[in-house]
Design goal:
46% of the residues lie in helices and 3% in strands. It is mainly α and 258 residues long. Helix 5 crosses helix 7.
Length: 258
């Protein structure tokens, strides 16, 4: 994989470049995809999905680190996660985890029935087939490795939330990639460009989107471009999406294009 210099705001004695770290192994990625689809997953697709997930988690950790630094803390707590998401809407991913985690209770709203009685929160699924929530523990080692690469430590509850978000995000990415394969492209989804206040517009390049619009390979195998197309569905059209796409391309430049 190609090494990129770390961005200035992430300087620190233990901070490594995002591209130096590969915390989510292709074997783990393929295991998640198997929970979602019976389609084959190419080697480059697995690397691309791992890269996109790493980019998203890195941005969340970076935002949490800044929130902790403002309170002169080095160890990340769930409150830092909430602050990071509140400050950057692009980081609001893996939403299905929010109903499961105590960190997000009260933020997703309390539900009432027709008689005004509070509806109890959903219990964990006991389905035999692993869900993104049940399988979240698979990401613990990768999350801890990513934290170390960013010179950060986190309390167990924070690690658990990062586990869950990574699992749900990657599962959603797998579902969208499979849908792209089945439907032959992403033309019907269009694109959304998110511009944060005070930032210059940086739309997703039309030529890049056009290249992902139509599939030219078989509909039995998920390829790298299917992952990139799914990324455009999962992430807003802001800086995070563009960075995730760029880093995924660089992470797969030495693998087959399939």
């Amino acid at each position: 994989m190609t090494t990129q210099p770390a961005r200035p705001e992430r300087s620190g004695p233990e901070t490594a470049s995002v591209m130096d770290v590969s915390p989510f192994k292709p074997s783990l990625v393929k295991a998640v995809f198997r929970d979602v689809t019976s389609m084959q997953v190419s080697r480059s697709a697995a690397w691309a999905a791992a890269s996109v997930t790493r980019t998203v988690l890195t941005e969340i950790i970076d935002g949490a680190r800044r929130a902790a630094a403002e309170e002169a803390r080095k160890k990340l707590i769930p409150g830092d996660l909430l602050t990071a998401i509140d400050r950057n809407v692009e980081l609001e991913v893996g939403n299905n985890w929010y109903d499961h985690s105590p960190t997000f209770q009260g933020l997703t709203g309390v539900l009432y029935d027709a008689e005004g009685v509070i509806v109890p929160s959903r219990k964990r699924s006991r389905s035999r087939k692993p869900s993104a929530v049940v399988g979240a523990h698979r990401f613990e080692a990768g999350v801890k490795k990513l934290l170390r690469s960013q010179g950060a430590t986190a309390v167990p509850a924070m690690v658990r939330d990062l586990d869950g978000i990574a699992s749900v995000f990657l599962t959603d990415l797998a579902r969208d990639a499979a849908m792209v394969v089945r439907e032959g492209g992403v033309e019907r989804f269009g694109t959304v460009t998110l511009v944060m206040p005070g930032e210059p517009s940086s739309p997703f390049h039309k030529d890049s989107l056009r290249s992902l619009s139509t599939r030219r390979v078989d509909r039995r195998t998920i390829g790298r471009d299917d992952i990139l197309a799914a990324t455009t569905i999962q992430l807003f059209g802001g800086n995070l999406r563009q960075r995730a796409l760029t880093e995924a391309r660089e992470a797969t430049q030495n693998t087959s294009a399939g």
